[in-house]
Design a protein that fits this description.
Porin, single chain, 14-stranded antiparallel sheet, mainly beta
Length: 387
């Protein structure tokens, strides 16, 4: 039975790539799991799409259209007091989301080597909110275990219409979000699964006006400025006679700066820009402040590809250092300056560009993981490595 499953898995993973031919190419952005479904190992949300490069607005300059679609079912834990707007360290709001998001982005290269590319785009989000699938069960959320409540019960006796939760108006409510995007990218990075060399940088601006974000139950109004730069160098690489990887070592460093502000920053956008999401070993939707900065250092070891190119074991040693400053989102509550740091190891099996099935062990050097507030060592299953 297992021998039959391996070819089926390979066909499933390769089929999106085989469906696209020049001038189309396949894009893969990642997957997520629901922690209550097989411990988060089973992907319940996927984000993918395609590039189109069949035209050129400028002679000998690449014009690229990116189309992405995400769809799935996930869980959220929100750590903000619905009455005061201050952060919680115990008993967060836990609920489920049926979500789909899509984006259209047009990139235009300005140089012959396609290094410098301004871009414009549009990002859309539709979400349907549900009470947690484990409502009534106890879960470790903070310093102790708490029963998971319904959305209405958690907000009681206050109204679900909290200004700190602009897109969430209760169970069985919906949110339709629209964000306009413009940016400038520089890319001189040669990247394979086992080697990386070069530098890349991206500066983007996002704007979500109220008039485009209040068509359903929830609302949003915010802007966000984001800067991300990466550098990588392959220290060692050994291939066999079939050009399959035997062993490689890559060192990389990433710096991210973000400023997000507005009177209605939605939860679906707070998660990705929260310092807790960006820092390995911490929790998403924590340290949700207007300004965040992080430096992520990685030393990656990639092992042999014994059967197929793209399937191999990998180990990643990491050190993350981050800083959060400003008001907690949608409030006047100042978080002051908070310093976070973590180091650890990620062990995984890479399956092409799609999955990194493995385990992460993080040692918290400064700060707290809100889900396990008293722990300084935090383990978690990985589907993709945040490199």
């Amino acid at each position: 039975m297992r021998k039959k499953l391996i070819p089926l898995l390979l066909i499933f993973l390769l089929s999106p790539t085989l469906l696209f031919s020049s001038p189309w190419s396949y894009m893969y952005e990642g997957v997520e799991g629901h922690p209550e479904i097989l411990g988060g190992i089973l992907p319940t949300y996927t984000h993918m799409g395609a590039n189109y490069e069949g035209w050129s607005f400028l002679e000998n300059r690449e014009t690229r259209l990116e189309l992405l679609l995400g769809l799935g079912y996930t869980q959220r834990k929100i750590w903000q007091n619905p009455n005061a707007g201050s952060p919680l360290i115990d008993d967060p709001l836990v609920f489920d989301v049926v979500r789909t998001n899509w984006s259209v982005r047009l990139n235009q290269s300005l140089d012959g080597k396609n290094h410098i590319s301004p871009y414009i785009g549009y990002e859309g989000t539709f979400e349907y909110y549900l009470d947690s699938m484990v409502q009534g069960s106890s879960r470790q959320n903070g310093s102790t275990a708490y029963p998971v409540q319904s959305i209405a019960t958690w907000f009681s006796p206050s109204s679900v219409n909290s200004p700190y939760y602009p897109d969430l108006k209760g169970a069985d409510t919906t949110m339709l979000g629209t964000t306009l995007v413009a940016g400038l990218s520089y890319t001189d990075m040669k990247n394979t699964l086992v080697t990386s060399d070069g530098f890349s940088s991206d500066l983007s601006f996002r704007y979500a006006p109220t008039v485009l974000n209040n068509l359903l139950d929830g609302t949003a109004s915010f802007y966000s400025i984001d800067s991300t730069s990466r550098y990588a160098k392959t220290l060692y690489s050994l291939k066999d006679a079939k050009d399959l990887n035997v062993y490689s070592i890559v060192v990389s460093d990433k710096v991210n700066l973000n400023w997000t502000n507005g009177n209605a920053v939605p939860l679906y956008y707070q998660g990705p820009v929260s310092l807790g999401q960006k820092m390995r070993g911490f929790s998403a939707w924590t340290y949700n402040t207007q300004f965040t900065a992080i430096n992520s250092f990685d030393l990656r070891f990639s092992g042999p590809e014994p059967f197929f190119s793209g399937i191999f074991p990998r180990m990643n040693l990491f050190l993350d250092i981050g800083y959060a400053l400003g008001n907690y989102f949608n409030s006047s509550v100042s978080y002051g300056g908070v310093f976070l740091a973590s180091s650890g190891v990620q062990l995984a099996v890479a399956i092409f560009d799609y999955l990194d099935l493995g385990y992460q062990l993080a040692f918290l050097l400064a700060g707290h993981n809100y889900e396990n507030y008293n722990d300084t060592i935090v383990g978690s299953v990985t589907l993709t490595l945040r490199l």
